[in-house]
Amino acid sequence: MKKLIYLLAIFLLVSCKKDEPIEPSPEVYTNGILVLNEGLYQQNNASISFYSKDDQSVLKQQFLAANSRGLGDTANDLVSFELNGNTFFVVAVDVSSQLEIISASNLKTVAQIPQFDGEVARQPRRVEVTAYKIYSCNYDGTVSIHEKSSLQELNVIEVGQNPDGLAIINDKIYVSNSGGLNAPVYDSTLTVIDANTDMISTVITTRVNCIDAIAGENNDVYLNSRGDYAGVAPAMLRIDVEADTVLYEFPKDISSWDYQGGWLYYIDATLNGVYRYNTVDNTFENNQIIDCADYNTPYKIRVHQNEIYLVDANNYVNSSTVNVYGLSGTYQYQFTSGLNAKDFVFND
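Structure (tokenized):
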């Protein structure tokens, strides 16, 4: 069992890019958007930004300002959870191999949970939180489980090769195994874990190199297969979670997606635009919602209430631009974030 490292002292200040000054932190992060910025691989420059809807200002490097140290190397996922009346974030920091637990009110770190097998980094990629547990799928082929209240490690489960997606529905944990480090021999399985026993209940044969998993509202889980970048094309899969079988397979080149209200909104990398899929009647709309022709690097899409947030990563080396649209694709406004904006928390 890994020993938690609780922060009792201030760590070294991590330098940031000249175009990302350390902005003063507000007392509370309300009526705005917190943005998790992935940073660049092996550059140790993951960060958190805050966009204020009150005055349309952007505060960069907010984790650094709150903690006097950087977030780490390559932040992949951020999920919020409630505990004892307080809100916290858990951040999967891949290359640093840490789960960072942060207070949502001031972004100060509560705890760091190292994810290592001896001296070998597990590399957490995605996180999900249930009523009592925190699950992280790790690129070393495992899923780590921690108790939410104490943050103590409960179990480590061996799954498939290089799991890169995690979804929870009906007390089941779905883990998509990509095998990304074993190209061209990719994994093609989906591991199903019983959330009550934390044991593997079944393994489903799916399709090569599934990198994302997302849960819908109709007892379905959706997988994004990137193919093998050669003879096997990308596709979207729909999994029936009652029978734990592949229900449908659609030839779609999806680079990023999000789910809201029965719709999957996605970036089609081939058609270079945003489209949507109706999960209720199982149909794809042909009409393009947003044209990405003027984007340098269409990177991430998130949908919140009546708005679509679409990230241009600007060739992965410059601050991201976040463009905001209505659900019909009407442009509304934009703001800048850090390097490779990856995830959002909306504090309305």
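The domain at 1-15+29-136 is CATH 2.130.10.10 (Methylamine Dehydrogenase; Chain H). Residues 1-19 have pLDDT under 50 and may be disordered.
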